[in-house]
Amino acid sequence: MYNISFSKVSKENAPYTALRNFSLSIEEGEAYALLAPKNSGKRTLISLLMGMLKPDSGSVKVSDYDCFSGRRKVHEIAGFVSGYMGFPENMDGEAFIRLISSWRGSLSKTKLQFVLEKLDINPLGQFKYMDSENLRKMSILCGLMYDSPILVFEEPYAGLSPIVQDSLSELLLEEKAQGKTIFLMTRILQHAQRVGDRIGIMRKGSLITEQKAEDFKSVRQKVYHIMFSSPNEASRFSQEWEDAVELMGKRAIVAIPSSPNVLIKTLGNYDVVDFIGGREDGEDAILRYYGDEMQ
């Protein structure tokens, strides 16, 4: 059974990056991590999941409930941690928790206390006096305090210290061990690897690949810096080579996962001034290969 599913979803003219024929399914009890850079479409993705947008075509469902027409039911069974949650600056944290729990109900006092202690959250005082990290932790608390069976996170690690990031990963692994379905959107490979059973990569509104998390641990590529005699020569080469090429004036940076023999043979047709090779591991290799910045 799929707890979260996007089936051939397209959304044009959204306030964020469009989605085009996007499909993704997350099984019950699975932790799925989506590596999503800026302008990849993750804001559109979470807006569709939360029922804030309606897809132009295709379907978005959580436990078989349509996320737009059935958004009230979706919010009863799924906890959302948005990367852009705002708080009323003149309200204190405890009052805010009471307010939103009165709207939705089903607050788990046990889970509330557990998350407060695990992430060392201080809910006292008005939001306008809280530092940015505590505001971020309050946002995470609001998504977890209902003990929902499905959890959706958009960039939850952003703005947190390394110690708190580690505590958050431990918390998510505990939720995962309880059989919860977790959908984590992040830009950091190490967080995706630690929490996810599967990892997908999203780029420009499309899911371009997905693999088991352990398969990403062995990603290693050869990267070559090639200096040409002119920017025009470098551009001409990039048009022929096409895959995983980054241009910087006269220089082209090429990432390949295999032997450089074909590359060297191709370069024989161009005026090359310098050629330097090296290796990249992990996140750098993945991002170079798929041609996008995760910043």
Short description:
With 295 residues, this protein is α/β, with parallel strands linked by helices. The protein folds into 2 domains: 2-216, P-loop containing nucleotide triphosphate hydrolases (Rossmann fold); 220-290, Alpha-Beta Plaits (2-Layer Sandwich). The chain has helices spanning 42-49, 71-77, 93-104, 109-118, 132-144, 162-177, 189-195, 213-216, 231-241, 261-267, 282-290; strands at residues 2-11, 19-27, 31-35, 57-62, 65-66, 78-81, 150-154, 181-186, 198-203, 206-212, 220-228, 245-248, 251-256, 272-281.
Overall mean pLDDT: 86
Number of domains: 2
Number of strands: 14
Binned, the helix content reads: 25-40%
Question: What top-tier CATH class of the largest domain fits best?
Answer: Alpha Beta
Which stretches are poorly predicted, pLDDT < 50 over at least 5 residues?
none
Q: If strands are numbered along the chain, what order do they take across the biggest sheet?
A: 6-7-8-3-9-10
Strand-residue fraction? 25-35%
Distance between the termini: 34 Å
The major pleated sheet works out as: 6 strands, mixed
In CATH terms, what is the architecture of the largest domain? 3-Layer(aba) Sandwich
DSSP summary: helix tally: 11
> What overall geometry do the principal axes of the alpha carbons give?
elongated
Give the tags:
6-stranded mixed sheet, 14 strands, 11 helices, 2 domains, Rossmann fold, alpha/beta, elongated, 4-stranded antiparallel sheet
Description:
The chain has 295 residues and is α/β, with parallel strands linked by helices. The chain has two domains: 215 residues, P-loop containing nucleotide triphosphate hydrolases (Rossmann fold, 3-Layer(aba) Sandwich); 71 residues, Alpha-Beta Plaits. The protein is built from eleven helices and 14 strands. The chain has a six-stranded mixed beta sheet, sandwiched between helices. Strands 2-1-4-5 form a four-stranded antiparallel beta sheet, with helices on one face. The longest helix has 16 residues. The protein is elongated, with a radius of gyration of 22 Å.
